[in-house]
Amino acid sequence: MDRRRSLALLTAVAPAIVFARRARAQAVGGTGGRSASPAYTRAEIPMFNSAAEAKIETIKRLMIESEIDPPVTLAEVERLLSHLAPQLWLGPAEGDDTRLGCTRLGGGPDLPQGTAWPLRPVPADADKKIAELGQHFAWIARQVGRELPFEFLAQIDLSENATDATALGLPDSGRLLFFWDGVLGLTFDGPSSCRVIWDRSPIETLERVAVPPVMEELEAAYDPTGKFKKPYLYLSRPMRLESILHLPHAHTCDMLADEALSNRLGDFSFVLAYNQLLRGETGMRKRPDYRARRQRLMGTPEPEQRDPRLHAIDKSDFPPVPWPPETIRLAMLRGLEWQMLLQLDLGGLAQNDLGNGTVYFLIRRDDLSRRDFSRVHAVHQST
After folding, report:
1. Residue 268 is part of which domain span?
2. In a shared domain, residues 135 and 16
3. Which residue has the higher pLDDT, 2 or 103?
4. Is residue 266 part of a domain?
5. Do 234 and 267 fall into the same domain?
């Protein structure tokens, strides 16, 4: 297919896409309750609603509008689209956040009555961590030897979109609650930096757990001058799960392990055009809704550095860095043994620019199939 034929295809189907976008914007633009979400347009919704839309946008961006040399072929577009996969976006919901068990960001968790707020225990190697952090991260070192509450980031009502949740490998009932160590988790990855709870208790047995008072102390201690702040408690906002289709980021294991695309991923102009396709814009972070677009459940991560799954893989049999090509490929394949559970942009979560970076919750695929959330890894990245 040459560029002229591709343009003709786009011209033929564009009115239908525009109509669908307008209809969706009108459907979700209402109000209701004290926490009603603002109206938003289809352009603010991440990625695609259908495989047809994904193909059209990919051809437009990579085959027609880009100046990549050599030009992207239809075969390469088809190869890219073979990685198109379902995902759930956490979009703003109408109504308020008082309904127990609802999909929500921030606030306090809804747990069975009498359940305490989960605490991060004192690490077994606390003295070592204090010594490592003391020189450059004194504010973190001060908290290492204390048993502190995890930060509560999100809860997901799996029954809200049970069909799509099960298609992605999630349970079809109950709630997933995500807690993160916002102190040590900034510098140390792994299962000790988070807690994920799959709670299947009846809604009528739930209560909203009170926020531990120490959270205010921690916020004040971050910078005693008050000039800078780090959120430990995030604004409570009702959300909803919207099914979308998405393409992997150019630097994920899914893409880098694809031998048919490996040469293209070394071409800066190709990667730049592809990243613009993913964000629906030119430039990296210019959209006002950029942070909100990144709150995703399942699917593949959008790394701020390298694929966060590479932090979690077993590298005990790897040679010292720099790795040879065969080890890099093995790392990518091992990364595919892990599934992203949740990706949260901290700035979007905090609703300001003080939140820095992204938190990724990762689970082994076999653990997910067993419904075992006890070994979930949390990885924090920032640029």
Report:
1. 1-30+49-83+257-287
2. no
3. 103
4. yes
5. no
Q: Is the pLDDT of residue 220 over 80?
A: no
* 155 & 61 share domain: no
* Number of domains into which the chain is organized: 2
Q: Is the pLDDT of residue 139 over 60?
A: yes
Beta strand 296-297 pairing with 85-92: antiparallel
Residue 42 domain-assigned (yes or no): no
SS (HEC) of the chain: CCHHHHHHHHHHHHHHHHHHHHHHHHHHCCCCCCCCCCCCCHHHCCCECCHHHHHHHHHHHHHHHCCCCCCCCHHHHHHHHCCCEEEEEEEECCCCCCCCCCCEECCCCEEECCCCCCEECCCCCHHHHHHHHCCCCHHHHHHHCCCEECEEEEEEEHHHHHHHHHHCCCCCCCEEEEEECCCHHHCCCEHHHEEEEEECCCHHHEEECCCCCHHHHHHHHHCCCCCCCCCCCCCCEEEEEEEEEECCCCCCHHHHCCCCCCCHHHCHHHHHHHHHHHHCCCCCCCCCCHHHHCCEECCCCCCCCCCCHHHHCCCCCCCCCCCCHHHHHHHHHHHCCEEEEEEEEHHHHHCCCCCCCEEEEEEEHHHHHCCCCCCCEEEEECC
Quick: pLDDT tens for 87-127.
999 988 887 788 999 999 999 999 999 999 999 998 888 88
My answer on whether 178 and 215 are in the same domain is yes
Instruction: Read off the pLDDT of each residue in 361-376 and give the average, rounded to a whole number.
Output: 97
The token pair at 63 is 């085959």
Query: Which range, 120-129, 178-187, 200-209, 214-223, has the best average confidence (pLDDT)?
Result: 200-209
* Residue bearing the bigger pLDDT, 196 or 8: 196
